[in-house]
Amino acid sequence: MHMTDVYNEGAMSLEVENDLIRVNNQLCDFSPDGRFLAVAYQTNLVVKSSKTFDTIHSFVFADIIEVFKWSRNSEYILCANIKKAIIQIYSIYCPEWKFKLTEGSAGLESVYWSPDSKHFLTVSDFNIQISIWSLENRSVTYIQNVKTSFGKLHFSPNGIELAIIVSNEGEDSIEIYKTDTWKLSKKLICGRLSSIDGIHWSPNSELLCIWCSFGNEAKLIIYSSVRERDIGIFCPERIVDTSETGCNYRNELKGIESVTWMPSGQLLAVTGFNEMIVLLNHVTWKPLLQLYLDPVIKENYLNKVYEERVIQPKLSSKNISLYDKHILEEKSERPINVKIGKKNDIDKLSIAKFNVLEFSSCGQYMAINHQLYPTTLWIWNVVEDYLDYLLFENSIVAVKWNPVRAQLFVFCECAHMFEWTPHTATCVSTPRNITVVDGRWHPRGNLLLLCGYNKAIILKIVNKT
Predict the structure, then answer these.
(1) For the chain, which terminal residue's Cβ has fewer other Cβ atoms within 10 angstroms, N or C?
(2) pLDDT at 251
């Protein structure tokens, strides 16, 4: 059902495309090709057309759906109940076909699609092993000794290889498997690292970042799968003197928390455990820029600061109170103190980390949020090296870049959402006043699926510029 609600605010016009959709814990998403929308509610899986929102298929799962994932070719949907270790796969084009699996005593921690859409992978409890299941002949292949502290699977973007950190008798290494045969292709010992705490493929699938996170031995190695050797190394403790690169450091990067590639692969962002980000050049692997998340916003004519402000409405003549109005107001005064969050008692012993570190699709901008500053979003123009700041009343729970343009939506677990573009930032009330905790973009960037805890709604984005 198409609704007529239209929101005209800031740099965009939003049109409500459908009625509220009931969902299980935000389980709704567009297919990778953009043709379909899948929605899970209790034991039901419904597939709709993303053009008309008419129901195409309806499936019934064996239990409450806790996880669902589209295959890369948009032909299959995998549903799972993690607690009971039940998996069932449905076909869009052959709805009578089904694949059902109940894992054994090893249990089920997570499940992934293989890039070829012909296999899926299950990770057992405590990462004891990875099982690779074939949809064609129902055979299974196992990978043992997966490092327990690192359960995420890393497929190369081209889908040809799978890299996994394994640990055997206290020694970490990396195993690389070919996804067409699932046979071990390479084993990287990485003797220059005392431990392996993370890996990340480059966008062109040719390079693999491998790093050790903590202490004086923190180190990043760049391995080339084409040359079959290391081609670069980065040590945080050795970058204080950067006169050769022209990057003046006020602080030293402490350890390596994570790395993120620019979509073009020209820059590599490395984060430390002291609220710092370093951008490395993809040729020399030396620092080009650095950003420290300073809790004080100082004078800089390029930087813009947008602060959420609540406008209290006046009582009407009938003594009926209206809703508060929220706006994003650009602030000119400096300095401005960034609000520091309070850590829960449970988290007192943990290290504060980056919640958000994401490049825009064009690669020019990076959205940044840190656990120490839960209500602040930094948007870094890495080409011109300046910042926009978004200061909110509530903690940020999700940010979503438009997949085709420099447009960002921010969600703060409230009945408002916030849009940022390079030209402006605005606040918009959510349809039906739903509390939005996440969003899903259509691949073409023209539809935005707003996800509440148990409901969702779709907006059509019409840009005014």
Answers:
(1) N
(2) 58
Using alpha carbons only, give the angle 429, 435, 440 rounded to the nearest 5 degrees. 90
DSSP 8-state symbol, 216:
G
| DSSP, res 245 | T
**Residue 406 to residue 385: CA distance in whole angstroms:** 16
How many angstroms separate the CA atoms of 429 and 5, rounded? 12
Which residues, other chains included, contact 94 with Cβ-Cβ below 8 Å and sequence gap of 6+? none
Q: Is the pLDDT of residue 344 over 80?
A: no
pLDDT over 80 (residue 275): yes
C-alpha to C-alpha distance for 138 and 274, rounded to whole angstroms = 48
Q: CB–CB of 392/412 below 8 Å?
A: yes
pLDDT in tens, 155-166: 999 999 999 999
Pairwise CA distance, residues 161 & 184, whole Å = 10
Return the residue matching tokens 């670069």: 232
Say what the pLDDT of residue 243 is.
Answer: 47
C-alpha 392/C-alpha 328 separation (Å) is 9
Q: How far apart are CA 385 and CA 69, in angstroms?
A: 37
Closest CA to 409 of 443, 440, 453: 440
Query: Average model confidence (pLDDT) for the chain?
Result: 90
- The proportion of the chain whose per-residue pLDDT surpasses 90, expressed as a percent, equals 76
Q: What SS3 state is found at 307?
A: strand
Which run of H or E residues covers position 394? none
pLDDT of residue 61: 97
Whether the predicted pLDDT of 282 surpasses 50: yes
Contact call for residues 437 and 413 (beta carbons, < 8 A): yes
**Residue matched to tokens 């970042």:** 209
Residue 103 near residue 87, CB atoms below 8 Å: yes
Q: E strands along 103-253, which residues? A: 110-113, 119-123, 129-134, 140-144, 154-155, 161-168, 171-178, 183-188, 198-201, 207-212, 219-224, 229-234
Decide: pTM greater than 0.85.
Answer: yes
The alpha carbon of 185 is separated from its chain's Cα centroid by a whole number of angstroms, namely 29
Beta bridge partners of 292: 276
